[in-house]
């Protein structure tokens, strides 16, 4: 878990309305702490890319303020932008340039003096050193994405944005990239990522920020979020199906599966008393014989879906299936 530090990125009252009238960001507040991995999650069109583009100074906001390391992104653009590394989702690289040259050039674009030792370190971190003399066009899609990360790290930023960093990357390269992300966090770099692989956010992130319709729904420590909004489900398989719940089990928050073979009980695993002991006693009193027992913990994906869509949308999707 990243230490409780003051925000290195602060966004307040950010609004972006395009000329056609569409509001991509709606009075949005957002922050990221120094030395944390923050996952920015949201459905397509939620405003993730617009938010990142605005923080990076690519998109001009309609109103509101953005500071990076205390520097206002509009009033002190060069200093603010020099603290940011951006890895876009699109694979936009110069195909005929050598890997080491394209990374070194990116460093120079931010006014940093040549530093072959730093370029070498970054290329080795990303397993690109053996490819340093290759032209970028000769690399696979996954390796090209690593080149983008190397370019973003060339000028030693304090904040790194990764927009869908593992899209199109094979499993082995993906694991290696996450090792690099963890190492960057240990060095104090703030990593803000968007991803469609929510299980990666669940594994990697210190905090989760959920955006929908141009607004931040919440930003919370991952563990606290999963404790607060997650639930655990106990599923009891019966040796013989039943047509209805016995009176001894009514009023205990238990559901009977449609086929009558299972009892489903939801509970708070962090509560002092879960009620499971009394449930099993009531099961015996009702004369029911259990054949199997299993539990299921809510995943971050389930929490995300409930936040963005709500239970009514969940029911509509189930009905349509």
Explain what this protein looks like in three dimensions.
Residues 9-238 form the ABC transporter domain. This is ABC-2 type transport system ATP-binding protein. It holds the Pfam family ABC_tran. One of its GO terms (molecular function) is ATP binding. Keywords: ATP-binding, Nucleotide-binding, Transport. It is built from eleven helices and 14 strands. The strands form three sheets. Strands 6-7-8-3-9-10 form a six-stranded mixed beta sheet, sandwiched between helices. The chain has a four-stranded antiparallel beta sheet with strand order 2-1-4-5. It starts with 6 loop residues before the first strand and ends with a helix. The longest helix has 16 residues, at 171-186. The protein is α/β, with parallel strands linked by helices and 321 residues long. Helix content is 34%, strand content 27%. The protein is elongated. The protein has a domain at 231-297: Alpha-Beta Plaits.
The side-by-side strand order for the widest beta sheet comes to: 6-7-8-3-9-10
CATH fold-level label of the domain at 231-297: Alpha-Beta Plaits
Structural class: alpha/beta
Fraction in beta strands = 25-35%
> Helical residue percent?
25-40%
Largest sheet: 6 strands, mixed
Describe what is shown at a glance.
By secondary structure, the chain is α/β, with parallel strands linked by helices. The protein has helices at residues 48-55, 77-82, 99-109, 116-125, 141-153, 171-186, 198-204, 222-229, 276-285, 300-308, 310-320; strands spanning 7-17, 23-33, 37-41, 63-68, 71-72, 84-87, 159-163, 190-194, 207-212, 215-221, 232-238, 254-256, 262-267, 290-297.
């Amino acid at each position: 878990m990243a230490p409780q530090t003051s925000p290195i990125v602060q966004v307040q009252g950010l609004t972006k309305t395009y000329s056609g009238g569409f509001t991509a960001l709606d009075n949005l507040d957002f922050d990221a702490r120094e030395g944390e991995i923050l996952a920015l999650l949201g459905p397509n069109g939620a405003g993730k890319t617009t938010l990142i583009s605005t923080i990076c100074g690519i998109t001009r906001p309609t109103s509101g303020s953005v500071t990076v390391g205390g520097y206002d992104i509009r009033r002190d653009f060069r200093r603010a932008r020099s603290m940011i590394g951006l890895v876009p989702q699109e694979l936009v690289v110069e195909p005929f340039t050598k890997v080491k040259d394209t990374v070194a050039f990116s460093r120079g674009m931010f006014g940093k003096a040549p530093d072959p030792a730093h370029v070498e370190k970054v290329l080795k971190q990303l397993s690109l050193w053996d490819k340093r003399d290759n032209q970028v066009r000769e690399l696979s899609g996954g390796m090209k994405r690593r080149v983008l990360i190397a370019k973003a790290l060339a000028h030693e930023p304090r904040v790194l944005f990764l927009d869908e960093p593992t899209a199109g990357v094979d499993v082995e390269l993906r694991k290696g990239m996450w090792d690099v992300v963890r190492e960057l966090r240990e060095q104090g770099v703030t990593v803000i990522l968007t991803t469609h692989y929510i299980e990666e956010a669940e594994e990697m992130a210190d905090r989760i920020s959920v955006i929908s319709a141009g607004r931040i729904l919440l930003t919370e420590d991952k563990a606290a979020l999963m404790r607060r909004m997650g639930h655990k489900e106990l599923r009891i398989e019966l040796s013989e199906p039943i047509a209805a719940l016995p009176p001894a089990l009514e009023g205990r928050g238990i559901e009977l599966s449609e086929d009558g073979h299972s009892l489903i009980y939801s509970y708070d695993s962090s509560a002092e008393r879960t009620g499971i002991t009394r449930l099993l006693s009531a099961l015996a009193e009702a004369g029911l014989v259990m054949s199997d027992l299993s539990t299921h913990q809510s995943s971050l994906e389930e929490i995300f879906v409930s936040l963005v869509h709500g239970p009514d949308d969940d029911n509509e999707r189930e009905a349509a299936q």
